[in-house]
DNA sequence: TCCTCATATGCAACTCGTTGCATAGCCAAG
DNA sequence: CTTGGCTATGCAACGAGTTGCATATGAGGA
């Protein structure tokens, strides 16, 4: 149930509405966690009724009202408790790897375009992460020195960068393998 | 719904029972997909009633009967169709990254043992993958030349190896960062 | 003898996550 | 003037995944 905790972290970094959270989950938090607005609204409601969050209705001019959530004492305590509990190291769930092994029972060369498309997506993500790193942490406009929260955000971002770089290199390996097999066995 | 397809791939590689599949999902297939026996039994039953799989009851001496599943024509067709459909590049779900950012609101040094434990798990996985690579693909007992299926299994395994190596390096970066913050801010 | 482990399958209840749809006002482009 | 996009929230239904428990047999150890 880490979505709850990811929301607590994000709201501690800055209070906001469900809609704003959903956008953060498409951006910085999205480097390591994804969530749709449906999930977020549902969990926010539960967390509020559990007393972890406070909600403040903000009537706005020219657009629908929004509800700004912020973390209460029990929310902070719940996060702290979770931080002290051990969690399971994650295991991967990689559809593309299933497809690659499945290619042994189909035409391997048919996968090449798909793998190229994935490579492009990861390459775009890498560029996006690197731009963010320059903007927030290593560029001339970045604060110096960084505070603890920023250092931790930076090390998480470095993880995202390392992940994308590793993935791109692996997809190149996959492409080379598929092309090699496609040449020697034009039709499997 | 890639569990279904992972099962098809695994049963095409070799027919087997639900129990055997569950063990494969703890081993080679588990490099990139996990599933419990509950999930597997449930999906096998559905796939059989959908006509994707054939089942053969094997009475055994000295132990409970087992049901051996194998892929039928429609199952192979379903896999082939899926292989030709584009899939979304996955996004990460990394609890540990949530914890690391959360450490800004708690004592960062409390996370060090947790990160060290994760590093150990990934290091063990890497050793396990490398042993498997030597046994099945690069060692003296490995078949030469490898057929297409084995080449594809190998490139997937290389992906697992690259992932673990990257993760270990990142966790070292995380540990260095946490230790640095722990020194300059003994209590956050 | 009893306990645990390994094989082998399964139900029931639950939470988590996704998808489609609905509402509602404003703005800008065509 | 209608279509689509952005802000902002939400319901309903479904599918995916987890956890706890139940059943059955035989082997080996305490």
Short description:
2 copies of one chain form a homodimer. Helix content of chain A is 62%, strand content 6%. With 188 residues, chain A is mainly alpha-helical.
Characterise the protein shown here.
The structure is a homodimer of 188-residue chains. The first copy, chain A, has 2 domains: 83 residues, Winged helix-like DNA-binding domain superfamily/Winged helix DNA-binding domain (Arc Repressor Mutant, subunit A, Orthogonal Bundle), CATH 1.10.10; 90 residues. Chain A has a two-stranded antiparallel sheet with strand order 1-2. The mean pLDDT of chain A is 90. By secondary structure, chain A is mainly alpha-helical. Helix content of chain A is 62%, strand content 6%. At the A-B interface, helix 1, helix 4, helix 5, helix 6 and helix 7 of A face helix 1, helix 4, helix 5, helix 6 and helix 7 of B. Chain B binds a DNA duplex (30 and 30 nucleotides) through helix 2 and helix 3.
